[in-house]
Amino acid sequence: MRRSGDRKGEFTAETRRRGENQKPTTEARRHGEESGDRVIARDRVIGKTRAFFSTVRGALREIFDESAYDRFLLRTNAKRSVASYCDFTRERDASMLKKPRCC
Fold first, then answer.
1. Total structural domains within the chain
2. Residue 11 resides in a domain
3. Which residues fall within 8 angstroms of residue 73, CB to CB, at 6 or more apart?
4. How high is the pLDDT of residue 20?
5. What are phi and psi of 21, to 5 degrees?
6. DSSP string, 22-78
7. Is there a single domain that holds both residue 58 and residue 38?
8. Are 50 and 73 members of one domain?
């Protein structure tokens, strides 16, 4: 005869096979969570958030020509300086003047 609060009766063979009735991990207990599922979900969210901000950062670097300046430095084997940035802006402005405009 089972008591109404007996948790063993709530688990099927499938849930036992997947390990859902196991004790919480040490890390989960440290964070006050019932199972490791929340830790895994949090790690996924953190990873996706980092990827999102990395993409936004890359887009902003392209918009504000920081990436183009880095490529210029690699191509010319120069170091960051006022003179190299001046050369970069001169080259960039000259390339924009050569482009034919339509309309």
1. 2
2. no
3. 79, 80, 84, 88
4. 58
5. -100, 15
6. SPPPHHHHHTT-SSTHHHHHHHHHHHHHHHHHHHHHHHHHHHTTHHHHHHHHHHHT-
7. yes
8. no
CA dist 57 and 103 (Å) reads 33
- Residue 16 has a pLDDT of 60
12 inside domain? no
* pLDDT at res. 39: 73
Instruction: Say whether both 91 and 70 belong to one domain.
Output: yes
Q: What is the pTM of this model?
A: 0.53
User: Which residues in the chain show pLDDT less than 50?
Assistant: 1
Query: Could you tell me the two tokens for 64?
Result: 């504000």
- From the list 28, 17, 21, the residue with the least C-alpha distance to 6 is 21
Residue 4 falls inside a structural domain: no
Asked whether residue 19 is assigned to any structural domain, the reply reads: no
Per-residue pLDDT, 56: 96
Where in the sequence is the domain holding 45, given as residue range(s)? 34-64
Residue 4, SS3 per DSSP: coil
pLDDT at 81: 95
